[in-house]
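Following up on my earlier thread - several people asked me to post the actual chain instead of describing it. Fair enough. Here it is, all 352 residues.
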Amino acid sequence: MSSRYKGLIEKYRQYLPVSDSTPVISLCEGNTPLIKAKNLAKFLGREDLEIYLKFEGSNPTGSFKDRGMTMAVTKVVEEGSKAIICASTGNTSAAAAAYGAKAGLKCFVIIPDGYIALGKLSQAMMYGAKVIAIQGNFDQALDAVKEISNNYPITLVNSLNPYRIEGQKTGAFELVEALGDAPDYHFIPVGNAGNITAYWKGYKEFNAIGKCRLPKMMGIQAEGSAAIVKGQVIKNPETIATAIRIGNPASWKQAEAARDESGGTIDMVSDEKIIEAYNILASKEGILAEPASCASIAGLIKLKDQVVQNSKLVCILTGNGLKDPDSAIKYAKSPVEKTTSELSDIVKLMGL
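Reply from S.P.:
Thanks for posting it. Predicted structure:
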């Protein structure tokens, strides 16, 4: 293989369920930036910490979902299916539609009506997916697509599809390679819980062959949809972090296993704290991530005093902030209006 990057399946082929004859469907996903956050450490009063931000928003459709979707759609093509379906709060629909388009598959997306950021929905529509909105929440949409895929010739590509987890585990491989080992702590948003499941799987696989130690997995849910933290299904989950607005996580048990096996935790943060972290991340580190991504930052802010001194930690930023421009507009400071005849006032505002 040449030095040109060809996507995560080609890079990690030996660790994935593919053969030399597997028809790889890729948009050159993965290989996302790992950014050291010195300003954030200073803001937290924890300059002893090495904080890194894994910015998954630089994937082709703007979220970590591309990692799993390249694997899922690759296997769909290999197995001869002609259509895919998913339930989505936004990011999955964009990834499924894009990779479905690349593979020449029909793609159907079931969304909870009124519970999806328009930036994400527009992606799915532009990629050519058939988008169907139902009255209900994500969990009801997921029930619908499970029933359809069980009874009709169409493949489910939500994180219940095991190949999704296989693709997403490569995020752990990239972290280990970039840092030389796993971090001490791994902070990550938890919605449907497939991503925390996948990262833990990746770490365990590299640990088994002596490539890394095991980190503490620190899963963070939004308070209004914190089913795992509260130990019960949330029938009507509510949070501004639409990507993790899920009341009955499909990978609930696997997330608990990752927490327990790693000696970590699954905690929750309020919408207020998520938005606070959203603004801190943008203003201190120059990174605009979607609100759900910032649950990991809010979790770190909440739990920073529990982090052992001189630790190395990673926060996963799951999606690009440009997917949800409405939130950026709503929670940013408004421009100060001045006429050009008031240049002296403008200079004063600039602090010059």
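The chain has a mean pLDDT of 94. That should answer part of your original question.
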